[in-house]
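Bumping with the actual sequence this time:
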Amino acid sequence: MLRNCLHEFSELSYWPGILRLRQSEPAPAMNVLRYNTIWISDVHLGLKCSRAEFLLDFLKHTESDHLYLVGDMIDFWCMKRTAYWSPLHSQVIQAVLDKAARGTRVIYVPGNHDEIFRDYTGTLFGGVQIVSDAVHCTADGRRFLVLHGDEFDGVVKHSRWLAVLGSHAYDRLLTLNRWFNLARRRLGFPYWSLSAYLKHKVKNAVRFITDFEAAVVREARKRHFDGVICGHIHRAQIEMRDGILYCNDGDWVESCTALVERKDGSLAVIHWADESVLLLCEESDEHCHRDRCLVSAD
C-alpha cells in the first residue's frame, strides 16, 4: 500500500530499491554507545546537502531501545524539483530498517517535507510504526509529547507557497555551506555550519524561532505533559520554559545533532560531527582512532 503512495516518484532513477527490505545482518563489532532512546529529525534525504555520511556513522555507533524519526527524513519537496539520490541515502534507510529488524522500536512522526507519509499514520511498515505524534515516558517518569512541529509554523500552515519559496532559498544557502566546508576540510579544519551561524544571527529568523518554541511549549502545557520533543527549525536545544522542558533534536544538514535519553532518564544533545570521537573513546577502554574517517558524500 505504501509503495502505491510513492508511485508518483517511481520514474526517478534513484527510487528503485530505496524501500527494499533485506534480512537483518548482525551488527559489526565496534565501539557502540547505548541509550534508552534516540531522537533524530530533519535529515532531508534527497537533498544533496544532507549529511548522510555523518548520520550513517551515528547509526552504526549507537544502539537504543527506542528510535524516534521526528519528521523530514526524506525531502520530497526537493525531490520534485531535482532528481538526486545518493547511495548513502539508501544506506541510511536500510540502517534504520535493520535496527527495527533487530528489535529496536522505531517510531516515525512525519514532517512537512515528508508529509506524504501522514496518510499512513497508524500503520506498520518494515517494523517502523508511523504516527502523527507520540507520547514518550522517560526512565525517571516524565511524559513527553513528540511531534515534528510544522503545525506551529504559521508560514507552513497558512502560506505553503511562501514556505516552498523559503525552502528554495534555504537550499541555496546549504549549497554555499557545502562548498564552504569542502574548503575547510582541504585546509584541515573540522566541519562548521555557516548556514546555521547566519540563520541564528538574522533578527527575523531569531524571532521566528522564539515564537515557534513558545507555541510548542504552550501545546505541551495544554495537554499536561512534562515536556515536548520536536524538530523542524534545525536548532538543537534543551531548555526549561515555564515548567515545561523544551527539547529540539536539531538536524542532519547543518548541525548533525541528535537527542538522547540516558539510562537514568536524563536527556542530552549530541553534536556528532564534534563529539563522536570523544564519546566513543569514553565508552571504550581500547585505543580509539582519532583520525577515524567518514565515507564521503560526494
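The C-alpha cells above came from a reply further down the thread. The first strand starts at residue 33 and ends at 40.
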